[in-house]
Amino acid sequence: MTDRVVLAYSGGLDTSVAIPFLADKTGAEVIAVAVDVGQGGEDMEVIRKRALDCGAAESVVVDAREEFAAEFCMPALRANALYMDRYPLVSALSRPLIAKHLAKAAEEFNGTHVSHGCTGKGNDQVRFEAALAALVPDVEVIAPARDYAWTRDKAIAFAEEKGLPIDVSKKSPYSIDQNIWGRAIETGFLEDIWNSPIEDVYSYTSDPSVPREPDEVVITFQAGTPVALDGRALTPFQIIAELNERAGAHGVGRLDMVEDRLVGIKSREVYEAPGAIALITAHMELENVTVERDLARFKRSVDQRWGELVYDGLWFSPLKYSLDAFIDDAQKHVSGEIRMTLHAGRAVVTGRRSEASLYDFSLATYDTGDAFDQSLAKGFVQLWSLPSKIAAARDGRLG
């Protein structure tokens, strides 16, 4: 039986060259799998045909936009997932989804190998292969760029030698990965961490310093998941897409950070995630209104660990599954509406309301109608501070 390599195919130079290279190197048929996660750009049918023109035995295109938004972005939102308290896991969320469809194709086409275009320096190799190890543990992985030291110069020469239908003249100064949840930009002049990003870097967001009229939006949540904008029921994908446009028009969601990569190096990354940042900001505020104090405190530590697991490629891991169960339970009362103003690079919460609110006006007010019995506070404060008082007396006694 002929070996078959299932390749994660983007339509770009590296993965297009990988098709004839893998066929030559392994003698196997190559099955190209392109997954639409809302990255935009070229038409997916054009990408499908290009894979065939480059020598693929089969070319599969998967429209996973709604699946990605509902089953990967929404769990990240419920977990307020921000790696290093800033990065909303743009690329880290798409990799397990792509791996899932690679595994499905490997089973459908009797694939003996799976391949991706990642280098040995980044996080994505780990994300793909950790996911594949959980989903199709008996299938071997080949990574041409990493395993065969495949450089861009070699790829261009190989493409020209084979006469592949790829325009190798257009070379972006940046390495870009994008999907509906956001956009990641790195390399080029950004590798000097003293250099400021220029407007040319950005695509999802407009310059926040340009004067514009503010945009007010009301986001409706049900059990931690957004279900409507301004009273219009929408799917998760539609909500993210609309907020990308509306928040992006005001420059919301720009990030410039030096990031701790899983492989142990620090890397300068520029991100823009207008919809993600607006939604996480709104979701956090609704949790402030509806989640009890101790649960909220503990969930913050769970959220951080959840984000680290996903960043590290462990989407399909026992701990991640268990944290999912905790987060889902913690979201059962996170329903209501958040009003936000989008303006000058910020998404600012200006109103919140919920049937499940724990905010009690009669207890919070300092005006007439205050129902809080302040006479109880004195004894509470004395008992609360008693351990510290006893310890301080002990320390004074012992010098």
What is the topological layout?
Blueprint: E1 4-8, H1 13-26, E2 29-36, H2 44-53, E3 58-63, H3 65-78, H4 90-108, E4 113-115, H5 124-135, E5 140-142, H6 144-147, H7 152-162, E6 175-179, E7 182-186, E8 215-222, E9 225-229, E10 232-233, H8 236-248, E11 254-260, E12 266-272, H9 274-290, H10 293-311, H11 318-330, E13 336-343, E14 346-353, H12 361-364, H13 377-384, H14 386-398
Parallel strand pairs: 1-2, 1-4, 2-3, 4-5
Antiparallel strand pairs: 6-7, 7-12, 8-9, 8-13, 9-10, 11-12, 13-14
Helix pairs in contact: 1-7, 3-8, 4-5, 8-9, 10-11
EC number: 6.3.4.5
Family: Belongs to the argininosuccinate synthase family. Type 1 subfamily.
Pathway: Amino-acid biosynthesis; L-arginine biosynthesis; L-arginine from L-ornithine and carbamoyl phosphate: step 2/3
Write up this protein.
It catalyses: L-citrulline + L-aspartate + ATP = 2-(N(omega)-L-arginino)succinate + AMP + diphosphate + H(+). It is an enzyme of class 6 (ligase). GO terms for molecular function: argininosuccinate synthase activity; ATP binding. This protein has 14 helices and 14 strands. The protein is an alpha/beta fold and 399 residues long. Strands 3-2-1-4-5 form a five-stranded parallel sheet, with helices on both faces. The longest helix has 19 residues, at 90-108.
